Amino acid sequence: MTATSLPALIYLLALPLATASTRPNIVYILADDLGWDDVGYHGSVIKTPNIDNLAAQGVKLDNYYMPSLCTPSRSVLLTGRYEIHTGLQHGTILMLQPLCLPLNEVTLPQKLKQYGYSTHMVGKWHLGFYRKECLPNYRGFDSFLGFYQAMGDYYYHNVSTGPFNGWDFRRDDDVIAQEYAGKYSTHVFAEEAESVIRNHDTSNPLFLYLSFQAVHTPLQVPSIYSDMYKDLIPDNEEQRIYAGMTTCMDEAIGNVTRTLVRSGLWENTVLIFSTDNGGLHLLGSNWPLRGGKGTLYEGGVKGVGFVNSPLLSDHVRGTATNELIHMSDWFPTLVRLAGGTLIGTKKLDGYNQWETISQGAPSVRQEMLLHLDPLYTAIKNTKNDKWADNAFFNITTRAAIRKGAWKLITGAAGNSSWMAPPGSNKKSIHPESRNGKVVQLYNIDDDPLEQTDVSDDNPGIVEDLLQCLGRYYKDSVPPFFPQQDVKHANPALHNNAWSPWE
Predict the structure, then answer these.
(1) Residue 468 annotated as catalytic
(2) Is 134 a catalytic residue?
(3) Exactly one of 42, 120, 126, 371 is catalytic; which is it?
(4) What pairing do the DSSP bridges indicate for beta strands 319-321 and 367-373?
(5) Going by fewer Cβ within 10 Å, which terminus of the chain is more open, N or C?
(6) Catalytic pick from 70, 100, 134, 248?
(7) pTM of the model
């Protein structure tokens, strides 16, 4: 494969509207709950040869951040806006909740369609479904095969909460769960993605969003994959299944990539791989990072990601970038890569990072909001924190921000342990209680594992970051988190399928 020359690439990016023959195909692959240490190239015992090879030949994103939970990360990806600006900053969308990504938000597929893209989604949505206008086909995707909820049975494609149970597997608006009963979702999603690629009309560029269910719970995988780990992970069946789920997903990614090559699309394709957040404690491994999914430590908000494409400059292939990149950056990056403009969108929080990724230029991003949830104020004891009465920001609010090398955390940060990876002789580390000290400050460049809180030694930095959090709070919209609608959302009222009810 030959790379596009640097002058040609610069010319492509300068065009306000690229031609159909030069607009690249974009394939965005999202893993669910994949931990930092759950890929081979980070030292895991889990076998991920396809991911490893793609990362090795592309650009690894070693300073890549996202929200720590499913719904917020997906909202940020598809809008380019922090979740504090869409009202989705509190938790995730619940099964019976009348809530979705606000309908007045412009989504990435909607924007790409303006520039001639065929847009297809396969896999997990989790951005709400209580109205039909919330669904993928109404948010910019030409086709959709997948499920609406956060999780479900990998084989029978149903999901329950309390007394409510329903099918959750669709092709566009049609429920197809029973048609696919017994078929493992990772295989189904890969086969659908391959079909989309093979049948793509090359007169238009392709945007394919492949959002795997794996490796989210429940723990399910064909035994051929989990049996690979009988010797590597002999003492923990759950972790063997999890490892098998990861390897199965890796195999699927290899199949999709080979189909891109065989279909003649690869030479003009940008492939992005990303997790949506850190790995779940006791299953996924974020070692040596601290914390995991749902926490504000690096293991929750710093994720695995890379870009591979023939359009990358030769000198960045096989490298890793330590430049700051946030999940919100994909929206402006991919729109500009498609030759588009950001006219008609709301104010974005993301930045165009294509030159950083494809040419090794410095990132234009120096600051990123990692979390800010005013509804989550579990911390009550602040008696030993000198910042308790500061004038800038309520330190009981769960929040985190990165600015340059510095990272500030307030409120309840979540599980603060360093959890040892499966199949290793390493020992997990559990820190002592903070005893009423709430504010935490880390120099991530010097202390990437967040081992030493230096807030007492750097009051000026703490004050500056608290002021930043205060400004973000003033600029935010209130969290939208309505009560669940148990009366109308019951799948039994909708042919036993999770369906829009308003």
Answers:
(1) no
(2) no
(3) 126
(4) unpaired
(5) N
(6) 70
(7) 0.94
